[in-house]
Amino acid sequence: MKTFASRLAACGDARTAAKNSAGVLAAAILCLVSAAVGEAQTQTLQRNDSERELFELLNHERIANHLPELKWDDALFKAARKHALLMLDLNTLEHQLPGEPGLEERITAAGARFSYLAENIAIGKHAETIHSAWMHSPGHRANILNPRITAVGIAVVNGLAGLFAVQDFSRAFMDESLERQEKEVAALLATKGLHVTQATADARRSCEANIGNLGVTSGTVIRFETGDLSTLDPEVEKKIAAEPHRNVAVGACHTREGAGFGRYKIALLFF
Predict the structure, then answer these.
(1) Is the per-residue pLDDT at 202 higher than 70?
(2) Which residue has the higher pLDDT, 66 or 42?
């Protein structure tokens, strides 16, 4: 990609070539305008027709399979476009190119917050043929129809070998309040026949301190982290099933904020 400075240098060459001609002023103005527009485009990405088409085809497949549509995510789009341009520059189809950070680092640098990531890449003649190839590939199809994901950013750039396409998927991480986290986990526990008590303060202290049961006289403490409050991890479910006590208090505690991988931290106090 050319920088603003390199575009101005190219404009300087054009003005030199036009020197002593009647069009020199017009050439200079045109070059400066082109450079400014090019710089603005690097700041605000606009979706092209192929990107819009792949987004529509993807959500059509999800609707046909009784899955919720994915939301468009500008941070994922930014990361996908950057990766697609690098593949184009190197004329190589890879998930990680020489000197390039891995997927998690790339998505974090773009400003996204997530609890799950996946990526599809391809080279093809048209958006429709790329989508068809993905849907006939078990791994790529699984990403498109993954019920865990909630957001996507799609980039398509045109090269001599065809269209370089990238789909970056995520489960967007939301900074829910502690009360909301506790309420959602409590609802899951209630469906398993557990009695959720009001000892929230004890559970929160246990979550923050990560030691002991801090106030509960008997029972077990189960701590876990999750990026999805709508379900319990199978390993957590096994521990809950093995727990003889049927009273439980739920406590959540704060984790780091900012871009990147996000998790909810939960403590369950059984007694």
Answers:
(1) yes
(2) 66
Q: Which residues pair with residue 162 across a beta bridge?
A: 159
At residue 45, the pLDDT reads: 85
Closest by CA to 87, choosing from 95, 79, 99, 77, is 95
- Cα(94)–Cα(91) distance, rounded to whole angstroms? 10
Distance CA 166, CA 191 (A): 40
Neighbours of 59 (CB within 10 A): 18
pLDDT at 212 over 60: no
CB-neighbour burial class of residue 121 (10 A; exposed 0-12, middle 13-18, buried 19+): buried
Say which DSSP state 215 is in: T
* pLDDT tops 80 at residue 21: no
pLDDT tens digits along 147-160: 999 999 999 999 98
Torsion 228-230-233-237 (CA) sign: positive
Rounded-to-integer distance, Cα 150 and Cα 166, Å: 17
Q: Which regions of the chain does DSSP assign to beta strands (E)? A: 71-72, 113-124, 151-159, 162-172, 195-196, 220-226, 247-253, 260-261, 264-270
Do 73 and 102 meet the contact criterion of CB atoms below 8 Å apart? no
Region of residue 27 (phi > 0: left; psi between -120 and 50: alpha; otherwise: beta):
alpha
CA distance readout (Å), 2 to 7, 183, 214? 7, 51, 60
Beta-carbon neighbour count of residue 191 at 10 Å? Answer: 8
- Dihedral, 233, 225, 240, 247 alpha carbons, nearest 10: -140
Handedness of CA 87, 92, 97, 102 (dihedral sign): positive
From 25-29, 89-93, 118-122, the region with the lowest mean pLDDT: 25-29
User: Could you give phi then psi for residue 141, rounded to 5 degrees?
Assistant: -60, -40
pTM of the model: 0.74
